[in-house]
Design goal:
Blueprint lengths: L1 H9 L8 H13 L3 H13 L6 H9 L8 H7 L8 H10 L2 H14 L5 H21 L8 H20 L2
Helix pairs in contact: 1-3, 2-3, 3-5, 4-5, 5-7, 6-7, 6-8, 6-9, 7-9, 8-9
Length: 167
C-alpha cells in the first residue's frame, strides 16, 4: 500500500490540483506516519507554492519523533514564502541535525538581506548564546559541526548588517 500510495503521489500533476485537493493533501500530511509519503506531500506543496502548508510543515520539522526524517521537510520550504519565519530557521540551525541544519542555512542565506533590525538582533542573540554553549560543550568543532553552522549563520547575518550599514 505505501509503495502504491507513494507512486500515486509522485504522479500528481501539481498544476491540476484544486484548493480542495490541496486541503485534502494537507489533512493527509498531518496524520500520516510514513515519512516518505509525508516528504512527498511536502514537495507537492512546495511545487504548488501552497504557503498555507508552511505552519504544518514546520510543526512536523519540530516534532521530536521525526528528528531523523525532517531534512526533506526543511528543503521543501525553500520555495515557499517563509521570510516571516526567519527565527524558526535560526532555531533549526541551533537545534537540528546536519541535514535540516544545512537546509535551514540555505534559507537564512536567501532571506538574510531582507530581515528587519529587530529580527537581526534577535537572531544574532540566539546564535551567540548557542555558540557560547557549543564552544563550552561540543567535542566536534570542525567543518560541518553544529558550531561551524552557528558561526557561519552569525557571519551571514552580520555580513548583511555590515552591508546595510555601508549604504
Amino acid at each position: 500500500m505505501k509503495t502504491e500510495l507513494y507512486r500515486a503521489l509522485k504522479a500528481i500533476n501539481v498544476e491540476n490540483l484544486s484548493e480542495e485537493d490541496k486541503e485534502e493533501l494537507l489533512r493527509f500530511f498531518v496524520v500520516t506516519e510514513n515519512h516518505v509519503i509525508r516528504n512527498q506531500i511536502a514537495f507537492i506543496f512546495s511545487d504548488a507554492k501552497y504557503n498555507r502548508a508552511i505552519p504544518f510543515i514546520i510543526e512536523k520539522i519540530n516534532d521530536k519523533k521525526l528528528s531523523h526524517h525532517n531534512g526533506s521537510l526543511v528543503y521543501a520550504l525553500e520555495d515557499l514564502d517563509v521570510k516571516d519565519r526567519f527565527i524558526e530557521f535560526v532555531k533549526m540551525v541551533c537545534e537540528m541535525e546536519y541535514e535540516p541544519r544545512y537546509q535551514a542555512c540555505e534559507i537564512l542565506r536567501k532571506y538574510a538581506p531582507g530581515i528587519s533590525e529587530e529580527v537581526r538582533e534577535k537572531s544574532l542573540e540566539m546564535l551567540e548564546e548557542r555558540r557560547i554553549l557549543l564552544e563550552a560543550t561540543a567535542t566536534d568543532k570542525g567543518p560541518d559541526s553544529p558550531l561551524n553552522f552557528v558561526e557561519y549563520s552569525i557571519e551571514l547575518i552580520k555580513g548583511q548588517q555590515n552591508q546595510a550599514d555601508s549604504y
